[in-house]
Amino acid sequence: MDPEKPTIVLVHGAFADSSGFAAIIRRLVSDGHPVVAAPNPLRGLASDAAQVRALLQDVSGPIVLVGHSYGGAVISAAAAGNPHVRALVYLAAFVPEEGESAQSLVEKFPGSTIGESLKPVALADGQVDLYVDPRVFHPHFAGDVPAADAQVYAITQRPATGAALGEPATGVPAWHSIPCYHLISGADLIIPPMAQEFMARRTGGEIQVVEGASHMIFVSRPGATVALIEKAAQQ
């Protein structure tokens, strides 16, 4: 493994876990990249970002930080002030400005099915865990993933709290000072493509739109995903 290559740190989003990164991990490792899949607790934006921030402190050398969906909000906070983060890569992701939440951004543009897709589970502390209803996971969340694979992802999904998705970002996000790369899923029914492009354009970063791609773009289009990550790694 080439020690000069930056470490790729992958941060999954809500209704997922790091197992979805399997195909791109295999390709990145084969290309000589050190890779870390960060656990994202999905409990609250500030606390989730703090956990990823702590993990980054243990990574030596340059870092390319990659976030999918809600993971984009997490990396925007976690990378702030870290001089080792060379680039931020957003995969069908939320890229909030200070004061914005995932919920407020997804409601900013039409086209999301998230409201009708979520299945709440009440927790003992009064909070609510949110899942994507397995009955609509394939058409709404992973439309271009084979049905059998989507069924597995639906079964193994990890919930996010309602509080996490509604928690506003605080502080100046890292995308104001770190180069950004955006992979936009052109057929996304969770974060509308218009919302993704709105967030991406204000960063001034590089934008690539993959027509026909679902919200699980990193699963269905691993080639495009790895190509953009490796381009960011050359930053």
TrEMBL record:
This is Pimeloyl-ACP methyl ester carboxylesterase. Coiled coil: none annotated. It comes from the Bacteria. One of its GO terms (molecular function) is catalytic activity. It holds the Pfam family Abhydrolase_6. It comes from Actinoplanes philippinensis. InterPro entries: AB_hydrolase_1, AB_hydrolase_fold, Sec-Metab_Biosynth_Hydrolase. The lineage of its organism: Bacteria, Bacillati, Actinomycetota, Actinomycetes, Micromonosporales. Residues 8-227 form the AB hydrolase-1 domain. SUPFAM superfamilies: alpha/beta-Hydrolases.
